[in-house]
Here is the input.
Amino acid sequence: MEHLDVARFFPRNRYSAMLGTQKTASNFIKESVASIFALECPTGTGKTAIGYSYLKAMLASGVKQPFYLVPNKTLAEQVKSLHPDVHAVYGRNEHPCLFYPGENLKADEIPCSLLQECPHRVNQETGETKEPGAERCPYLQQKYEAKQSGGITVATHAFYLYSVFFAKEFEPGAVVVDEAHGIAKAIRSVLEFHITDWNLARMVELLGSILSSQAEVLDHFRKRMIAIIKAKEASKKTILEAEEIRELLDLTNAIDTRAVDAEIRAAIEVGLIDRKKDRLALKQLEILGRDLRMYMRSFEFALPTEVRHPLNFTFAFWRQELEEGKRVQYELVVKSYYVAPLVKKMLPKNVLAYSATIGNADIFSHETGIKGDFLSLPSTFSSLNTRIFMPTDTPNLSVKERNRRDKTKSLRMIAKACKTFSRKSIRSLVVVASNEERKKFLELVAEEGVKALSYGEGVTPRACARQFREGEGDVLVGTDSNYGEGVDLPKGIAPVIFYYRPSYPRPDDPATVFEERRFGNQRWHVWNWRVIIGLLQVRGRNIRSVEDVGVTFLISQQFRRFAFGSLPEWLKPAYVGGKTFEECVKETVKMLS
Ligand code: SF4
Here is the structure.
């Protein structure tokens, strides 16, 4: 793509003028002959409008079905509200199914692919419903409208992976990847499969009930899987070796999935299964057919070939005794790990990827598979509005360095500081690495008489953050995976953030073992990149506009090694590395009062 004029398509009906950063980005794209771009766009640089203009310019150049990708529905809604002409498409879980009226079921809870006769089915070519005049299936209708619109479609990474890449329902000529630093993690999280003895036993039973020729073959797989798992140490996650995966792959390959599909359909036809009455059994059969294919594909990628190392890993876990209420004794977990080649393959030729935190462009590209012309935009925020405190007297909380009391002592320091702040009506966000630390902190902060909010016991992290935003509590507490990114607390909602320690992988985690084997010492580059991105993301939670004022406390001395060096230039003056914790608390009170 040569000299794409992004500025020409800037939405001037919505914004009176382009920001300096938006002009820089559009000139960068215009002057380049590359077709893939990676932009680091700090908060406030106007990235959504850049992406929107880029896709509009692509459309004008003749490119079809451009997509704007985001990690979740909330962000998709934000893009839609900023640019109402884009079409938002959501997964099945966001739409009701009309085939079972009165049952309040979502489209992902029903065996849709086995209900071809559904009168509400919207033909994706013609737009006609299966039964003329029938109410239109909302899930299929939104996809049909997006295809027909000829405009920009906004969707989640997961929707894109399944509907665009796997199912080939769209053929996008250009894609914007928002929050691109997290795309590998997002893809990994949806490509994780659990194969359990209980599930397999259910599948065998279901196949038996429709007299399937494949019930016995699947049962053989189940028995061998249990034998392989049982040979490992109990209650420990152990990575399977290549020969074991090869054997499991051969056994799954022996299952004729086409025969399974045909037999299920035949069972429906002859009335062995009733579409309405046996909905749950039918759904399980649908999942069975899909899962078998997924297992095969996943095992394949877990094996090395002549041209590549394994991309997935599989670990086994089993319990000596089944606890009451538990049904799974033997389990295999297949995790997609190195998804960069997949991301590369699923994206078209023209890509604009951006994020507030890209950091090292080479490692970003290694992790995400997105390699293009890179530009880091300057921030429009003032470093005077923020501080990044790295106190001199907090402990090093790495497993090797910390002593027995360091964790409790440092969590108590944070709890006491929260108390000081809450007395001045300054609210805080505390981000810890593990659930155990979260619980311990909740205990300590309660002892200080400070009202802290956290999730659990039926309250989701999202709901809890909403309550906090609405004014409940003085402190919001959560782990890195829940509150490290995606939770915005600007305008004084939580002007103080405590970031407890960097989330390096646990040595006993199978993913860590896999990365050690796969990358050797190189793994440290990726791990350090991830913790740097983590730090930059956490720091940005309370500063979302030029007016916001907020500070971040880095607690573990592990941060000292890389924190200053990883900050973008504009933020470096905000780093305070020579004061004690108490001095930092005092400076915060002065700054925020
Ligand atoms: S096509 Fe029919 S069965 Fe499938 S989700 Fe839509 S309404 Fe439900």
